[in-house]
Design a protein that fits this description.
alpha+beta; 7-stranded mixed β-sheet; 7 strands; 25% helix
């Protein structure tokens, strides 16, 4: 007997450096979430799949290396983190003209995720996003003070936050960048 769970969950996978591995990684992310039988609408799972493809492809294409992908569930939202081993500047959303072939990935993430951000790691960086409910997870601290919320076990860091509002439903969406 299957039942929908709100219990926290987490799973990781390694994505090889070959860009042809991105579609299978994206499908694996969806399979993980479906196996968890989460209470998510089908359009939320489709958004997760689209955005997963974008951040995973960015990690592989822009670093020429593989990346570690972690999918987590906190009882309200799914968080995907793509960690690569290339340091330097943290990715930021950029403008792209309609006729350009690339440059819209983080625009999609910014427009469709309830929250997203970047943070440096010891060896590189993480780009993460969350989809699910527009309401914040239970016991989540204010998004004005930390890079990743405590429900995902993240360390607290100072951040700059923009909260333009949820794109579809009323609520909040935040972009968080480590300072």
């Amino acid at each position: 007997m299957s039942f929908r769970t709100t219990a926290p969950k987490s799973s990781s996978l390694h994505v090889p450096s070959d860009v042809s591995s991105v579609p299978s990684a994206r499908r694996r992310v969806v399979a993980i979430v479906r196996d968890w039988d989460l209470p998510l609408a089908e359009d939320t799972v489709e958004t997760l799949e689209l955005l997963a493809g974008e951040v995973i492809a960015n990690a592989v294409v822009h670093t020429g290396q593989g990346c570690q992908v972690t999918v987590s569930w906190d009882g309200t939202r799914v968080r995907l983190e793509a960690e690569d081993a290339e340091g330097g500047l943290l990715p930021q959303r950029a403008s792209a003209d309609l006729d350009e072939e690339s440059g819209r990935g983080l625009q999609l993430v910014d427009g469709l995720a309830q929250a997203w951000g970047t943070r440096p790691t010891t060896d590189g960086k993480v780009v993460w996003f969350e989809v699910g409910s527009c309401s914040p997870p239970p016991f989540r601290p204010s998004p004005t003070a930390c890079v990743s919320d405590l429900s995902f076990g993240g360390a607290r860091q100072s951040v700059a936050v923009a909260e333009p509002g949820c794109s579809v439903l009323s609520g909040s969406r935040a972009h968080v960048t480590a300072i």
